[in-house]
Write a structure and sequence with these properties.
Structural class: alpha/beta
Strand order of the largest sheet: 3-2-1-4-5-10-11
Largest sheet: 7 strands, mixed
Shape: elongated
Bound molecules: 6-O-phosphono-beta-D-fructofuranose
Strand content: 15-25%
Number of strands: 11
Order of helices and strands: EHEHEHEHEHEHEHEHEHEEHH
Helix content: 40-55%
CATH class of the largest domain: Alpha Beta
Distance between the termini: 60 Å
CATH architecture of the largest domain: 3-Layer(aba) Sandwich
CATH topology of the largest domain: Rossmann fold
Length: 327
């Protein structure tokens, strides 16, 4: 017989993502609806270790659905990856009687939740909050849609000036280990090339294509690069291209953390609300130590133990689309 969850803690962990606030709001209000006490844990696992925890009410989450960032703040907590840190966290939670956790974050945060739930009898439910969309078991992650739309808006603007000056722009988007922002924003803006960490880039081929375009006087080109690509980002690619094609007027633009901020799109607010609601239902129904994703517009549950082992895979078909449409 599984224990009844009556007091839950909610936290955001890892890189922030637009829509985290909408998700916190959903967790708090659903928890209260079902008669639970809901606690906010500040700065991710750090708040658990340092006992920075406070009780939330329905009003605590008023007027946040449209705000980027996270009202609970976030961190990447090293202490939680030690057994002493997790013991402290457990003691702090039990003092307050918290007997269920909702963790909004990326794969690193899920790894923490998985270890904690294997060691202690506090069930955890993970929700995918990351702009990177690099988690298997969900079609989308909270924040990805907003980040991609931010990148698209910026790249469209860059294309205007690239076009006016006949320039080659190398635009770096976020994604240390994941190319989804690059892939989606690159296809959506008609980028001539997209370089991502998940695929080897044939740089000779890229140079050959650019040289061929130069011959045809097609000098306006956009290359979208994920920050974690094999060459080390846009600056490095620019160096290689400048050395090989000195006639090209090359400029670099690194979009950076602008992609992490801003008001979440309608899509991100919706998935954040649905996932937040569903996480509380999981804790109510005894569906413990899972991560809640969405597949084909339905909630999809993956045991945390499995979730941390898999990465979302880049589809070969998408890569083919990139090649065909950029020709
Ligand atoms: O949250 C994911 C992410 O934005 C990655 O795309 C990026 O590589 C990383 O976080 C940057 O982290 P930080 O803000 O700690 O430099």
């Amino acid at each position: 017989m599984k224990k009844k969850v009556t007091k839950i803690g909610v936290l955001t962990s890892g890189g922030d993502a637009p829509g985290m606030n909408a998700c916190i709001r959903a967790v708090v209000r659903t928890g209260i609806y079902y008669g639970m006490d809901v606690y906010g844990i500040m700065r991710g696992y750090t708040g658990m270790v340092e006992n920075d925890i406070f009780q939330m009410e329905s009003r605590s989450v008023a007027n946040i659905i449209q705000r980027g960032g996270t009202i609970l703040k976030t961190s990447r907590c090293k202490d939680f990856f030690t057994s002493e840190g997790r013991k402290k966290a457990y003691d702090n939670l039990t003092k307050l009687g918290i007997n269920g956790l909702v963790i909004i974050g990326g794969d690193g945060s899920f790894r923490g939740a998985q270890t904690f739930s294997n060691e202690y009898d506090i069930p955890c439910v993970g929700l995918p909050g990351t702009i990177d969309k690099d988690i298997a078991g969900t079609d989308f992650t909270i924040g990805f849609d907003t980040a991609v739309n931010t990148a698209v808006e910026a790249i469209d603007k860059i294309r205007d000036t690239a076009d006016a000056h006949d320039r080659l722009f190398i635009i770096e988007v976020m994604g240390r280990d994941a190319g989804y922002i690059a892939l989606h924003s690159g296809i959506a803006t008609g980028a001539e090339n997209i370089l991502i960490p998940e695929r080897k880039t044939d740089i000779e081929e890229v140079i050959k294509q650019l040289a061929e375009k130069e011959r045809r006087h097609k000098l306006v080109n956009i290359i979208v690069v994920a920050e974690g690509d094999e060459f080390g980002g846009a600056d490095e690619i620019a160096k290689i291209i400048k050395a090989r094609l000195p006639m090209q007027d090359v400029r670099v633009c690194i979009l950076g953390h602008i992609q992490r901020g801003g008001s979440p799109t309608c899509f991100d607010r919706l998935i954040a609300s649905r996932m937040g609601y569903s996480a509380v239902e999981c804790l109510m129904e005894g569906k413990f130590n899972v991560f809640v994703g969405m597949v084909n517009n339905r909630m999809y549950f993956t045991p945390l133990n499995e979730a941390v082992k898999k990465k979302q895979r880049i589809s070969e078909e998408w890569m083919k689309i990139v090649r065909i449409l950029a020709s």
